[in-house]
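Both lines are given unchanged directly below:

***
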Amino acid sequence: MWARNGNAARNQSFYYAQTNYNTAFLDCDIALLRFIASNVCPEWFLNAIASSFYLDECLSYGSNPLLTEFTPKVVTRKEWVDSLIDGALRLILELVVIPWNIGGSEVKDMEREIVAALAIGDLTHSKLKSAIPERGTRSPMSDEAFDSLLTTLAVYSEPDQGSHIQQGVFRLSEDSWRDRFEPVFCRMRATTAREFSDALLRAENIERSRLNRSPGGKSCGHLWIPYRLIDFNSAGDALRLNRINRLLASPTFFAITYEILTMHVDEGQLSDSIVQQVIYLLTLSVAFISSKQFTSMCIDDRTQTESPHLSALTRLPFHRRRKPEEMDERTFALSMFTFTPSGKDSCSLLTLVVRIMRLLLNEGDTNADVDSNFATVLREMIAVSPEQLVRVSGCATQYTARFLNLLYRCDKNSRRILDSLMGSETEDSPRKVASDVDDAESRTKAEKRLAAKRRQEALLAAHKKKSASLMQKMMLREGLTQTQMDAMDTTEKSEVRHYECPICGDTTASTLSHPVGSLVSIVNNYAVEHSLPADDRPVSLLELDAETIKNNGCTRERHMMKHCDVTRRMLLEKRFPVFADLVQVPTGVEVRSCGHFAHMKCYKAYVQTLWESPPLRVNPLDLRVDVSCPMCRAPVQGLLPLAPDIDIERTRSNLAEKSEGSCVFKRNVLAVQNSLKKTNPPLQESDVENFIKYRQSFTNFIMRCEKWTTYRGDIGERLRSKGQSFTLGLAKANCERNVLLSELNISDRSNRQLPTEHLIYAARYEGTDRDITFANYQWRQLTYGFEVDGEHEASPAEETSTKDERPVEANDVKNAKCIDDSEVLASSTVAAKTALIRMGREVECDSGTPVMLFDMKSALTRISCYLITNDYLVNDDKKELLSFVYEVIVWATAVRSALLAALHLSIAQVKRILKHSSFAQVDSPNDNMLASVARSIMSKLFSQPHVNVDDLLRENTDEVDVLAAMRYACTDLSRYIAQLWHECRIKRLPGEMRIGHATLEELHLFLTGDERLSRSYLPIASLNKWVEVISRWIPFIAHALKMEALIWRRFTLLELPSSYDDVFSRFFGRTCVNCGSIPRNPFICLLCSELLCLDTCCVASTGGVMPDNEVERHAIQCGSGVACFLSLNTSLIVIVTRHKAALWGSVYLDAHGEEDRNLKRGKPLYLSERRFARLRSDWVRQSFEQNSMSFFNFEHLPTFLRDAHYVLSL
């Protein structure tokens, strides 16, 4: 019984707490009061209002002696006066201005409701309809009429226009703001004072923009509330409700307004909003008295209500006035505006308004002539016709002048007073006399400035001569020649950057003694690794589900890039274990910066202040702590130490000077090899200890990032690299994701480029002897053809392919065997190492990693790291060496791509290629060179004794575009290295270049200065060696290599059908694969289309190895720890990661751009392309930063889904 009664009471309170119910009840109350006020004596009604709001006690705080003698009994505090007076004036305005049920149509009433609701805030279609007050059990108009009216009054704003996802909303049009906005009605409909303030602020912004656009117009200081005049000449109604306008001509009305204005002018006690309401009421009073609707005031009605017990206002002089017999009622009513209650020395209502207007003019410009300005403004406003005064725009001057205009036109006494005020301008107004500029004094000043300039130039010339002499003496003392001085780079200075710490407020450089770090967060991001082969056609959610049904419920396996990476790592560990963990740097972890910095000591203190009970002897820099940025409140999980600014003297090596080709190549090879060393920056003795602390702090940061990868669920986790390789992987991940964002046309305003430079700098000093050895090993293997001696050296080919160019043939290879670096590493004694090194390095041995199994981006990043951070090289020399490294590796990439393409060829296509007929349609110079290399590679590969063509290519049936694969590989590498240069400040990308859409020629021009590839960087010896070495392993690694796609396409999320009914009908009622029951909360994975169950029936204990819930387990297996699901019963997108979940929103909206969470409204839902594009963008960036979205513990997900429609926001 208690439960039943309690639920009933709760339901009633829920219904009656809604705005539309309360508003409907309020309408009835106001309508009843209006009916009463129209049928009783206006004096009695106004005194009843004054008594209810204790206006006599409120006005007793003024200066009128008739009221100051009155002792307040209720209003005992002066702070209450404003609220009570404002409430009384508000009630009078609502009764007089708002036409309640008098000859108005439903359309007009609905129009007023829509304008008031949209003035308070932009609303969705459903919220707008729910904001309309209830009138009976049926809606006042049909949906079609409502939508038609809404189209006239408002402008529809498409969903997701801003930085955050939002629903489609209706915004009040500018014409509606100007012609239909009624502040009195809007205030009545506002549930709080803040809502009405927001509406006034929006109206002010619209008005300012309109005034600024108008010819010669400009917005003034503070705009007044845009009150509109009402029509008093309308026909009467059956209930005679328009008789309520008599309130505007009663003595009590004039007494109340007079006392309020007196309090404001004499003591300034009341707020501006009250003064605005009083001026508006007086303006309405003048308009009513001068209208046809005005009738004679009944003296009997007035005298009958003169009862002292109602309020003390009846004692005021306005009630003692009697109309002379020769004066008509209209003239007598208008005389109230010029009546002086306390005699000739006191003010009238007119003079009070004039004083207010003069005070407002004086506030605008204290040095201006108030009399002149007042006369000018008044003359301009009086010239305006009354028809143009229904609505005025501007500040207080325009609204007070409107009142004076109407009064000037209908009252002779007022006209005489105003004429006298306007006529006093010429006699009393002071004039400012402008002083002339003295020409002689101006010429004297110009001559002095010219003489001072000549003296300054003479001093600079003497100082320059003295400096040159001093430089010559110092050169003689140091024994330096002019040639040696010219070799020193005196033009390039180390750029010292300064960073602002928001914690302490200081702006300093990042030095070893005062280190600065970047506030960063660490996220898992596998957007690049989820790429699919280009020949894997894009499929939608329903198509992939249909294939799953055909396969008896088994989801089709899709070979993503991350699967190929794992296969390659396992292959390297099995066949080439020496450097297996260094060949490919790990990715999937992204370091993201908000763009703000902090001193390390300040950040440490900041984190400690956020801990309730800070642990003893724990350094916050060594822990992963979830805090917020003190500046932008972005999530922060650590501090990335910035590269310290070390000022050293750089020597120009003149590597950019051109000389004979082979000499340049050998010189550059040696210069790069000299940089691949384990060195420390040039430090003073006092900085050595600080540098050790810097390295330790960065090592701690990398260890925190490594711990972040423990949740990824990667099957190749045991092969995860650490130290330098992991640091390079973080930098590589940032560059790849920035290129990906450009490819997908996703704009990202975050500071993703900031961490890369500092990660590259620290990676150099994270390297161990093993890392240095491997870097040298890779560089020697890549430049093998430039280092061979005498008879083994091959002359570089021509830079362009010509008809006379001889392709690389099999007999070009010298089958000499040499010792590999891996054998050197495996040697135990120094003597053995020396002996093995002296045996040479011509052909790769079985235990070494072949060049064709290198990850070229990783190799390029590792080698470039040492060049970028070389403190002794000037920037021009760095660019020359980096460009050389790029051209060497881009050709190695092309060769590797051609070898992979050869493994995918059919036997028929191989025969055509070897006959030189497959690339007959090639016209581009770069494609000609790539085609020539491809033919040479295949000719060499398929002539090797280790390769059985029939067994290797038997299963291949599809044609392969070899040139497209090679061009894709070279372009992909070029985009990556260009982005790396840009982020490391080696060479900035042009503003017009979109890195994700740049062609190979554009990128090659940016990186090398020439659009065309050069075959000089691919010696025949290198090509022959690479092909021969990999051919030995073909029988053992061909299957793994064939898994790698020749061209990758980006994959984000599955395509969704346009109608939600299609999704719902396909998956609703389907049984769960695990438990066999129909789930109450079905989830659909948008990566693989699998149907999952959120219910407890699919919870399985895994002993902590994997999450217990099926949804979380699938997030690890399918999305590497982060997954995107569609909740079928709610139409919401759910993001699941790291034991947390978040409601992203819905990509399915109704015809008005609204979500239908939990399908409560039952409207047809359609796919929003803009919303789905936003979801893809957030998914690629792994950045879910909407205002309406926050992550919560996963176990609370069912509760959040159940109550999702209650927390729906715009």
Observations:
- The first strand starts at residue 154 and ends at 157.
